[in-house]
Design goal:
The protein is mainly β. 4% of the residues lie in helices and 39% in strands. The protein has a 5-stranded antiparallel beta sheet, with no helix packed on it. 42% of the residues are buried.
Length: 496
């Protein structure tokens, strides 16, 4: 085997280990008390949470905007932060950022509310209240109005909690009519036509433009096969809550066929914080907090049943949030514990959607959670390997506080490589932000490669210790090769 082939084989092994270890270790749920809150990291900087089974790196990705006295954060646990290939993220409908360097890419204008395409990493959709449907191309900073739905006082996606299907084919919108009726509008994003409209008489009634009186939210399922309606009734308020023009009672969570908008079944008599995803067996489900008690439950959209998947009476309560935006990692839901639970360990966990009870601990959110702004609202990335959440890191525990930042939690890269597979070098600090020192021998040649095997840097050491400036490198994982005479060794290097 040539040295080049050997190097590429090592890099291949290196990458396989990273891929296999990109999620925290599986296990049963543990109540892990939050450690002493670390100091708030600066924008783009990280701290570690070593209290959970797999160390979690937490990076701050937003900063206070003094000119507007504003703390920009992501919207909600069901609104995707990252684009389809996770190379960019957006904060509300304000700006798009590079997901590696955390630097601004584009500023958005006239796109509120906006939603990333699930298939095209360069595309953002916007569904405007006046019925306009817009497409924004990030790379060219161009906006196109591709359709308009007329005849409504206001049109909403959700409102606020709806999503496009995973193939960017269908979306379910709600429209407010002047007479107080509400229409559910199923729209085809590929043909830019309305597929079906179903009227619910007096379902919006006298409510303002933001929220209907009787319907909490409407969304298309991830497959695009189902339209899900969650009613805004209080617990126990069922029959007679909302009655349509045909005398039918509506409450809880109802499922409709997307093609005909015919009623299929009621999967829950009460709706709660939750999201739409896939169970491990491939069935589509609603994952939500269990109504009237603690725990997380999943209900199958085809009406064949459901089961409780996490049950912890003291910590898993409806004061938190649930995200299934991990469309490339079906079979999991991401659950945030809010501090208002009594007691709460302030954790974020991924829950396997079967009856195994398996979870992954993604660390603590460290939020004071004294306001809606500070509610963690963790949202999973498309691949499910990262989580974005709100927190003030304990800096402003005041009721109603607006102090909140967005953070990204993922496993520590230093835990993702099995060092026994490589001959280790004495490199420090590792991870690093700029310079490293390698303790070795004089006349050693050090070569650095990126994850593709591309040569990045070569330096011959004149002394036993050599310093290398890495400040110009992008953040990521690199391979260091050390050659002295006929001896070669390798080690990983993490650039923050």
């Amino acid at each position: 085997m040539s040295k080049k082939t050997y190097l590429l084989a090592i890099i291949g092994l290196f990458l396989i280990q990273i891929i296999n270890a990109q999620f925290p270790q599986d296990g049963t749920y543990q109540s892990i008390a939050a450690p002493t809150t670390p100091a708030m990291p600066d924008y783009g900087q990280s701290v570690m949470d070593n209290s959970v089974p797999t160390p979690i790196e937490i990076t701050r990705i937003t900063e206070y905007q003094a000119q507007w006295d504003w703390y920009p954060t992501h919207e909600y646990a069901k609104t995707q932060v990252w684009n389809a290939d996770q190379t960019k993220y957006k904060m509300t409908s304000w700006k798009v950022y590079n997901a590696i360097t955390y630097t601004e890419v584009q500023e958005l204008s006239g796109m509120y509310p906006s939603y990333w395409s699930n298939t095209n990493p360069d595309l953002i959709w916007s569904f405007r209240e006046n019925g306009d449907i817009k497409k924004y191309t990030v790379s060219t900073n161009t906006t196109q109005t591709v359709a308009n739905i007329p005849g409504y006082e206001v049109i909403k996606l959700g409102p606020g909690e709806g999503n496009i299907d995973k193939n960017d084919h269908y979306v379910a919108l709600v429209g407010k009519k002047a007479n107080g009726d509400l229409d559910i509008i199923v729209f085809d994003l590929q043909t830019l036509t309305i597929v079906h409209t179903k009227t619910f008489t007096n379902a919006w009634v006298s409510g303002g433009d933001n929220f209907p009186d009787y319907i909490d939210w409407v969304s298309i399922s991830q497959s695009g096969d189902y339209v899900v309606v969650m009613y805004s009734n209080t617990f126990g308020n069922t029959a007679g809550f909302y009655v349509d023009q045909n005398g039918n009672d509506h409450y809880g969570v109802e499922i409709y066929d997307r093609v005909t908008m015919q009623y299929q079944n009621r999967i829950a008599s009460y709706g709660n914080h939750g999201d739409l995803g896939y169970a491990v067996d491939g069935d589509e489900v609603l994952v939500q907090y269990k109504a009237g008690s603690a725990g997380v439950y999943m209900y199958k959209l085809n009406g064949t049943g459901g089961e409780i998947i996490v049950n912890n009476s003291s910590e898993i309560t409806a004061s938190g949030h649930i995200s299934c935006r991990n469309i490339n990692r079906p079979g999991w839901a991401y659950v945030t514990q809010a501090t208002s639970a009594n007691p709460s360990s302030k954790q974020i966990v991924a829950v396997k959607l079967d009856n195994s009870g398996i979870v992954e601990h993604f660390g603590h959110h460290f939020s004071s959670d004294m306001s809606y702004d500070q509610s963690p609202m963790a949202v999973a990335s498309p691949n499910g390997d990262k989580i974005c959440f709100h927190s003030d890191f304990g800096t402003d525990p005041v009721a109603g506080s607006e102090v909140a930042y967005s953070f990204i939690a993922s496993i520590d890269n230093t835990a993702s490589v099995n060092e026994e597979q490589l001959d280790t070098l004495n490199i420090y600090p590792n991870p690093t932000k700029d310079f490293v020192t390698i303790k070795g021998k004089a006349n050693t040649i050090y070569t650095i490669y990126d994850y593709t095997g591309k040569l990045i840097f070569t330096k011959k050491a004149n002394t036993a210790n050599t310093n290398i400036d890495l400040s110009e490198l992008n953040s990521g994982v690199y391979l260091v090769k050390a050659t002295l005479n006929n001896n070669t060794s390798f080690s990983k290097l993490i650039k923050r």
